[in-house]
Amino acid sequence: MRIAYVINSLEGGGAAFPVPSITGVFREAGHEVAIFALARRDGLAEPPMRAAGLDVFTCTAGLHDHLRASLWLTRTLRAWRPTHLWTSLTRATILGQQAGRRLRVPVASWQHSARLKPGNRLLLRAFRNLSCFWVGDSRYVTEVTRTSLSIPASRLACWPIFCAKPSAPQARPWTPGETIRLGSLGRLHPVKGYAELLHAIARLKTADLPRFELIIAGEGQQRAELEAIIARHGLSDRVRLPGFTARTNEFLTSLHLYLQPSRWEGFCIAAHEAMLAGLPVIGSQVGEMNYSIEDGLTGWHVPPEDPAALAAALHHALQKPDALAGMGTQARELVLSRYGEEIFRKTGFSLLERLERSSPA
Questions:
Q1: Could you tell me if 253 and 149 lie in one domain?
Q2: Is residue 300 predicted with pLDDT exceeding 90?
Q3: What does 254-296 look like in DSSP terms, one character per residue?
Q4: Is residue 132 part of a domain?
């Protein structure tokens, strides 16, 4: 097959960063693949794709210029001559479905979102039959896709978007007297719950706790608001916002505890990468974290948008820092057993065989 992988943008994070691993399965199975991005955005996802040897085509139309983007996609795909399309996220899926119909090639569509906007849900439901099958990127998102888009089981599959490799480096255990390093990876956006996290940090009574610091590695529109909260609560000696990092392994292995206080998530790759690095996770009861975090074993659940509950979980974890490494070991074992390389590859191969047998809608 000659597979055109159509994505919303080259923005760092989310569904774009796993593309090299996913397309690696495509190529291992003997198929050609190239990336077609409807927008560049910050472009942080492009270097890993190029480093993986992928060709990347990028539309220069505005984010809301759907007509121009649609014309670009059809024209560019016609020149590249794919035999099949694989789409990701709402805009890329809808425009990809239309291009697939024009070019008479089958379309398979990822779903990554656990919380579709009403308008997007209506559009995806209206065009759901233009995709030969749908793939949820996690157990949680697969169920959301089934119910919200009314996709029958015969046209729905689950392929967790995370490939856990046993070679991934591990964090060092905390040692007595050492500052406990708390961290999170993500864009600075309200959906990630970082304002609630800072309010939780401000609630902690530090006199009875070991010394700790919080590092949030990411960039985004909420920076000014988060900096204002840090200043208002006098947290500058305990909280740092160093900006985006491409060195995620180095960042995660420098931590002792990972925090994911999101308001909602689908799979949440960052939290699972942290678990693979041997870190316990305090995470919201949203998305795939509902299944991956086992309270008291691999981390702790907290309700989303609840600074008081988050502060209580942090206080509990910080009182027993010598227990964090053991929980992190269990977290690593869990993700390797559920999302390991062999499972990832076998699932991908089976879906490619299914795609190869498909006919255009």
A1: no
A2: yes
A3: T-SEEEE--S--SS-HHHHHHHHTT--EEEES-TTHHHH--BT
A4: yes
Q: Is the separation of the CB atoms in 360 and 104 below 8 Å?
A: yes
How many CB atoms sit inside 10 A of residue 90's CB? 20
Q: Are residues 250 and 311 in the same domain?
A: yes
Residues 156 and 206 placed together within one structural domain of the fold: no
Cβ atoms within 10 Å, residue 122 = 11
Q: CATH number, domain at 70?
A: 3.40.50.2000
Highest mean pLDDT among 38-47, 61-70, 77-86, 138-147: 77-86
Tell me how far apart the alpha carbons of residues 87 and 161 are, in angstroms, rounded to a whole number: 14
Give the mean model confidence (pLDDT) for residues 155-176: 95
Rounded to whole angstroms, the Cα distance separating 306 from 72 reads 44
Residue with tokens 């024209």: 75
Confidence at residue 15, expressed as pLDDT on a 0 to 100 scale:
67
Q: What are phi and psi of 74, to 5 degrees?
A: -60, -45
Cα gap 278→276, rounded to integer Å: 5
Residue range of the domain that includes 211: 180-339
Which of the given ranges, 12-26, 80-94, 102-116, has the highest pLDDT on average? 80-94
